[in-house]
């Protein structure tokens, strides 16, 4: 009788051990699961401030990674939620990025904004007529994962020195252009210049004025006085907003 | 360059619709604002009981100007333009985890 119990336990144990462990998705499975997901077009989605926006998704494919972007159903001012699954070529999800309080849906863009050779992500939070609020996620190859640097409002440019310039339109005749040094996990604020224009009755710009605005904590590291800073940053193409 | 160069952060991304202190100096600014308001009200009441309206009003207005002025100045110059309170909390969680794991700085 005791032998029968032993054999029964042994058989049950062997049966349990022989069960297959859950498998990570293969590339074929991942490909199949995202096969019907449309590619991100980079275009804004219909506004959801007053209307119920149904959940949707799209995919971004880069040489090394695939991003599965999901837009949650939303209605209201800034109730949108965007999540981005970062997938390896074998389909495994290695990280999920999440943005809450999203006011407008637009497809994220995979760009190397820090110019380090790795693709970074820009996730739109608000889409205006001139400005866009963007959450910047930098890929940190040392970790390796995406790190949220912060969010900026405006049009993104790069300077010759590798700084990030964000030109935000304040009014028809005024722009604020902020310059940042891109750090590993944050944008280090350098300086903001205010560019204003004067025009004639026909709307032609006759004179522009560029003045220094707020100085950030990283400005001191440049070792520039105010006049040198004005000459340097007002001459940047990003600050010549009325010349374009 | 550290995040503690800033005293306030936005509660939500995008427009600065709400600010929260992320540094002791930020809380000090708020305490100074509240202190100036309460102090101004107390002085106003004190002088009113003595039937001295003018010094009461002048001192109250002065303290309101000082309290509100310093609050507006520091929120304009010491607010992180790119990171929200959630970003600061996430950084603190990462730093705590780093310490718990015995990491060195």
Show the helix and strand layout.
The complex is a heterodimer of chains A (244) and B (105).
Chain A (H helix, E strand, L loop, with lengths): L1 H17 L8 H9 L20 E6 L4 E6 L8 E8 L5 E10 L6 E3 L8 E8 L4 E9 L4 E14 L5 E8 L2 E9 L4 E13 L5 E11 L10 H9 L10
Antiparallel strand pairs in A: 1-2, 2-3, 3-4, 5-6, 6-7, 7-8, 8-9, 9-10, 10-11, 11-12
Chain B lengths: L7 E3 L8 E3 L2 H26 L3 H25 L1 E6 H16 L5
Task: Provide an overview of this structure.
The complex is a heterodimer of chains A (244) and B (105). With 244 residues, chain A is mainly β. Chain A folds into 2 domains: 25-115, no CATH class; 154-244, no CATH class. Helices cover 14% and strands 43% of the residues of chain A. Chain A is built from 3 helices and 12 strands, in the order ααββββββββββββα. Chain A has an 8-stranded antiparallel beta sheet, with helices on one face. A 4-stranded antiparallel beta sheet of chain A has the order 1-2-3-4, with no helix packed on it. In chain A, a hairpin with a 5-residue loop joins strand 8 (145-158) and strand 9 (164-171). Chain A is globular, with a radius of gyration of 25 Å. The model of chain A is unreliable at 14-32 (pLDDT under 50). Chain B is mainly alpha-helical. Chain B has a domain at 21-80. Helix content of chain B is 64%, strand content 11%. Chain B has a 3-stranded mixed beta sheet. In chain B, strand 1 and strand 2 form a beta hairpin. In chain B, helix 1 runs antiparallel to helix 2 (53-77). The longest helix of chain B is centred in the middle third of the chain and has 26 residues, at 24-49. At the A-B interface, strand 4, strand 8 and strand 11 of A face strand 3 and helix 3 of B.
């Amino acid at each position: 009788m005791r032998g029968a119990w032993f054999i029964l336990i042994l058989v049950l144990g062997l049966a349990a051990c022989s069960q297959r462990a859950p498998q990570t998705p293969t590339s074929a499975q991942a490909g199949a699961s995202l096969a019907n997901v449309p590619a991100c077009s980079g275009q804004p989605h219909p506004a959801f401030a007053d209307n119920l926006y149904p959940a949707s998704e799209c995919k971004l494919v880069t040489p090394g990674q695939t991003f599965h972007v999901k837009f949650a159903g939303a209605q209201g001012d800034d109730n949108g939620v965007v999540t981005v699954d970062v997938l390896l070529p074998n389909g495994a999800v290695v990280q999920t990025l999440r943005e809450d309080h999203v006011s407008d849906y637009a497809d994220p863009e995979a760009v190397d904004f820090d110019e380090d050779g790795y693709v970074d992500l820009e996730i739109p939070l608000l889409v205006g007529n001139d400005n866009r609020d963007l959450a910047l996620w930098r890929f940190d190859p040392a970790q390796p994962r995406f790190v949220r640097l912060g969010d900026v409002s405006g049009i993104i440019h790069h300077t010759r020195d590798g700084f990030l310039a964000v030109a935000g339109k304040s009014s028809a005749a005024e722009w604020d252009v902020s310059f940042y040094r891109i750090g590993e996990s944050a944008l280090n604020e350098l300086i903001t210049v205010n560019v204003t224009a004067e025009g004639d009755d026909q709307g032609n710009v006759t004179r522009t004025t560029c003045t220094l605005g707020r100085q950030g904590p990283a400005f001191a590291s440049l070792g520039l006085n105010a006049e040198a800073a004005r000459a340097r940053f007002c001459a940047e193409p990003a600050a010549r907003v009325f010349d374009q | 360059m550290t995040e503690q160069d800033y005293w306030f952060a936005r509660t939500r991304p995008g427009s600065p619709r709400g600010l929260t202190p992320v540094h002791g100096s930020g809380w000090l600014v708020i305490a100074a604002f509240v202190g100036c308001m309460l102090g101004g009200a107390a002085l106003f009441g004190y002088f009113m009981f003595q039937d001295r309206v003018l010094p009461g009003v002048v001192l109250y207005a002065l303290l309101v100007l000082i309290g509100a002025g310093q609050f507006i100045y520091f929120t304009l110059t010491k607010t992180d333009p790119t990171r929200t309170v959630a970003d600061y909390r996430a950084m603190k969680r990462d730093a705590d985890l780093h310490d718990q794991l015995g990491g060195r700085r």
